[in-house]
Amino acid sequence: MFTESIKEGFRLTHRNPQLIYIRIALVFINIAIFLIMVGAPVFTAASRIGMDMAHAGDLFYTFLKDPSEIVSRYLGFLLIIFISFIICLTFISLLHIYVLSGTLGVLKK
Fold it and tell me: Are 99 and 26 contacting, i.e. CB atoms less than 8 angstroms apart?
């Protein structure tokens, strides 16, 4: 039963190689979307804070001593990063559903 399912999956895959290319393209699109939608706010927040290597070490030790001070100081940045992460996950999920529905439509025929 299990081996027959795997054989059927390979047979369908080899009959429709464009589906593999679409999934690979989707992975690269998801990486780009993540870097743009989450990386940009993180980079902006880091540059806005004035991060450099010496300040990063101080920030880390401050975070270990009193985490609530860091959270209260940079709450706006944390909210922007969290919201952009949620929007990114939503967009990527919708993109996956769209590609999955197209894949199922191709495999149905």
Answer: yes
